[in-house]
Amino acid sequence: MIRPFLFLILVLISFLLIQARTSINYDEARRALLTAEENLLTGGHTYLSEKEIKANEIFMQYKIKELDRGFENEEENAAALHFFKAKPLIDKSKVFQFLHRMPKGAVLHLHNSASVSSEWVVKNISYYPGLLRCTTTKGKTVLTFRRTPIGHHCQTEYVLVSDERGNASDPQVYDQEFEHIINMYTPHPELEYSTTKQSWTRFQDMFDSFNDALAYLPVFQIYTWRALEELYNDNIMYAELRSTLRPLYGENGTDFPIDRTIQVFHDLNEKFIQQHPDFLGIKIIFSAYRGFEVDRIKNILQDFKRIHKAMPNFVVGFDLLGQEDKGKPLYDFWRILKDFPPTARFFFHGGETNWFGASTDLNLLDALLLNTTRIGHGYALAKHPIIMSAIKNRKIAVEVSPISNQVLNLVWDLRNHPGALFLAQDVPMVICSDDPGFWNAKGLSYDLYYAIMSLAPKNAGLRLLKTLVGNSIRYSAMTKEEKSRSYQILEKHWSIFIDKVLEEVDN
Ligand SMILES: *[C@@H]1O[C@H](CO)[C@@H](O)[C@H](O)[C@H]1NC(C)=O
Ligand SMILES: *[C@@H]1O[C@H](CO)[C@@H](O)[C@H](O)[C@H]1NC(C)=O
Ligand SMILES: *[C@@H]1O[C@H](CO)[C@@H](O)[C@H](O)[C@H]1NC(C)=O
Ligand SMILES: *[C@@H]1O[C@H](CO)[C@@H](O)[C@H](O)[C@H]1NC(C)=O
Ligand SMILES: [Zn+2]
């Protein structure tokens, strides 16, 4: 069904088109077309105060200057460049600095074990006493704190990272190499990641290398705390973390039950909120690897149901993850996903693929049929007009993670990212960071940079940004009360931010 107002716009446009041909009103018709599209764009109807309009003018000066410079010299067009090449330009950018300081609301798609910047991991976890390293028969590194490590098919003996570093001729070079284990950065992504397979293999290897070290209780604690700090430092007030809830282990290397993992998340969150009263905390989306057999997922679902029942407002939902093109499609699991506790929700990854009509692409369909609350990535969504329209009507937000899609090889030039189509048609969406620690990013500002510089039209500014920030609260799994408190805090921070932007320019 075409909505009445859209219908009116269409009638108006046809009328204007006839006019344009028959009279001197060509410019008027042209302007009306532009206006109609601008109104349809995400944020097209968002109100800006006098002050916000002024702040927007400042922002637009930065934005236009950077885009024009990029138009003159494509080498400097960060909006079109791969993040690994663009990052030094972005770090210097006034648009980026503006976005970094801007209150950003929430991040709704973020994987816990790749959420912290690699720089911090090197400084802290690689120096954590007792860290061991081995090399597998396939030449991959495995890290652990278990004194009697298990089941990694190591070809070499485990050695202490501190010993290796002590023996290295240059500890700084050693640290750089260590960082490579958990960071995909390369100056030549076009060579190292010329295929999806290359980028996904490397990406998956990083989890395999790091996960057992991260499961060491004290390390998990400082890592998760740091994750919260990095969000907070990027002016983010809330996050929904996807976690596989692996069992943690202590001194003697024995696994705790996964209830302990969730307890640690919970306690750290409480403590963090106490120290940062304007931070609203995190909630957990329990995620399972989609490559597992159906029976195994069934067991994991039992765990989920039990934990969700104990903490319904903390462990809010369920997801399946891992490369969609290689794992099982959602359709394989629909029977076991059907009877779900009514309070629990799904947050499925879907359509993170370039294959049109393949089983992975059709995950979008099953996500919709299973009543997903949001869709992770939804990269393939624009190819499915019926699903897209249903998603719009049912207000299912798409979690768009531009840098992730680029680094994992779905698109090179982010101006071609389908998120541009979502914005143009006002599909509900939020900007997310997915696994920022694994590709040299931090917080959400880098992804937001691409959203406003590459996905959005040239003249889109604060109105769109404000809408995206609002969306991140609106489409979150927070309760009504939590949302209204979020809006209050956000509004306060937002108006302080706008005042500062204006003050600095006056001086
Ligand atoms: C991480 O490392 C930095 C630099 O060495 C240090 O200042 C900081 O205290 C460490 N943080 C933790 C939680 O160990
Ligand atoms: C460090 O060097 C010493 C002396 O050469 C050697 O015995 C030891 O195995 C080395 N350890 C590592 C971890 O490389
Ligand atoms: C390991 O330590 C935990 C408590 O930290 C204890 O419950 C467990 O029995 C210990 N396991 C072994 C094999 O010593
Ligand atoms: C679909 O999910 C929403 C929450 O995201 C819930 O309110 C609604 O009742 C669900 N509908 C069905 C048919 O399960
Ligand atoms: Zn993801």
Automatic annotation (TrEMBL):
EC number, as in UniProt: 3.5.4.4
Catalytically driven reaction(s): adenosine + H2O + H(+) = inosine + NH4(+)
UniProt GO cellular component terms: extracellular space
Domain of life, source organism: Eukaryota
Keyword Secreted: yes
A biological-process GO annotation: adenosine catabolic process
UniProt KW keywords: Hydrolase, Metal-binding, Secreted, Signal
GO molecular function, one term: adenosine deaminase activity
Name this protein carries in UniProt: Adenosine deaminase
Cofactor(s) the protein requires to work: Zn(2+)
Organism the protein comes from: Drosophila ananassae (Fruit fly)
Gene coding for it: Dana\GF16877
Subcellular location(s) of the protein: Secreted
Enzyme class label: hydrolase
Family under the similarity heading: Belongs to the metallo-dependent hydrolases superfamily. Adenosine and AMP deaminases family. ADGF subfamily.
Chief site of localization: secreted
